[in-house]
């Protein structure tokens, strides 16, 4: 187990950070290769733990792949197994993304039910209900989803009770090989869902409504598709995290290899707090605020303010002059970082889904515990400005979604070291 030791900055950060490919775009797109009949070259893949986990799962199913830097060449033709085991799924719940494609291609599969995680119970009932409407027979036995179909999945009209990102992705992939047309109402519109649809569309799957909350997919009736090579879109959450690093340290920082249009809700809130924003078509620069104003945030689906940026903005709110309110509407337990920030001297009060943050308090370095991916990045941000040293433990959470975080921040002038936990 490793931890990060962060020393309080003695001067602002400065420089440029190159943003990696989006983990949450790469995961569904890797799962979608199950639908392919050819070798596929995927570029700009972030080499983070979650990606390595999914590649391991695909290899267990029979796929062949090779990695060079941030590219993966994968050949799904040799996939023959259809069991996603508990030991893999328990480490990464997004493994559920193989359910739709495996069922669509083979007509049967067994996928371990993903457990909950720190941020919530995170059920997959909407995924399963939609697949049943497409003709799947689904039984839950001993912690596994046993799914099968007589013949190909059938196109159906699906209305999602809640907007679900991976639920939409699973059904888009299942529908791609179904017999007939599937309509998804109340589909997720995240850029990562859009890229999945764009890649499938470029590979011959007829999809209407890409980017909207209503998708119409015409399936190939179990005909595997020739998937065109593609490049993963930039990670908007990594980008937002580094903008917050610049903001919390009152620095001028540029992030490049980004798509600013994916960051609009984040940039809007940073400007509301008084920070300056300059952008080009592939970069964003954040400039210090003369006075950091408090902020009110409600997390919601894209294009609204992303829940995956909630913890980072809570850290940022600690330096605001006044009281900020954050309402976490998507997950029932996504405030695990609060107790750790309190240990650093933060003044935060929780009442159900509402966090009240009284900014301006002195922050002290401390030993703190990462609990989930985005919480861990919030603790690093706080560590940059807390007096003395902060040790963030259990940083395997961080490594799931951030490629070389300390390297990228140290290049801007931070002092973050990675050490082995003392025995
Ligand atoms: C995706 O998770 C992301 N993960 C999450 O990012 C992100 O926080 C989340 O979307 C919301 O934007 C990936 O894309 C791999 P949901 P997902 O299904 O798809 C409820 C990160 O930091 N729901 O959109 O699992 C659910 O409980 C991760 O990279 C059901 O009730 O989220 C939640 O309240 C963390 N039944 C809401 O919907 C279902 O069947 C949204 O969940 C499915 C979801």
Pick out its properties.
four-stranded mixed beta sheet, 423 residues, 30% helix, elongated, alpha/beta, binds ligand EPZ
Structure report:
By secondary structure, this protein is α/β, with parallel strands linked by helices. The chain is about 30% helix and about 25% strand. The chain contains 14 helices and 24 strands. The protein has helices at about 25-30, 50-60, 85-90, 100-105, 125-135, 165-175, 190-200, 235-250, 265-270, 310-315, 335-345, 375-385, 395-400, 405-410, and strands spanning about 1-5, 15-20, 40-45, 65-70, 70-75, 85, 110, 135-140, 145-150, 155-160, 180-185, 205-210, 215-220, 230, 250-255, 275-280, 285, 295-300, 325, 350, 355-360, 365-370, 390-395, 415-420. The strands form six sheets. The chain has a four-stranded mixed sheet with strand order 22-23-1-24. Strands 2-15-17-16 form a four-stranded mixed sheet, with helices on one face. It starts with a strand and ends with a strand. The mean pLDDT is about 95.
Shape: elongated
Helix content: 25-40%
Bound molecules: ligand EPZ
Distance between the termini: 10 Å
Total helix count?
Answer: 14
Oligomeric assembly: single chain
Low-confidence stretches: none
Could you give the topology of this structure?
Layout: E1 2-7, E2 14-18, H1 23-32, E3 40-43, H2 49-61, E4 64-68, E5 71-75, E6 83-84, H3 86-89, H4 99-106, E7 108-112, H5 125-133, E8 137-141, E9 144-148, E10 157-159, H6 165-176, E11 181-185, H7 191-202, E12 206-208, E13 214-218, E14 230-231, H8 236-248, E15 252-256, H9 264-272, E16 276-279, E17 283-287, E18 296-298, H10 310-317, E19 323-327, H11 336-343, E20 348-351, E21 354-358, E22 367-369, H12 373-385, E23 389-393, H13 396-399, H14 405-410, E24 416-420
Helix pairs in contact: 1-2, 1-7, 4-6, 5-6, 6-7, 8-10, 8-12, 10-12, 11-12
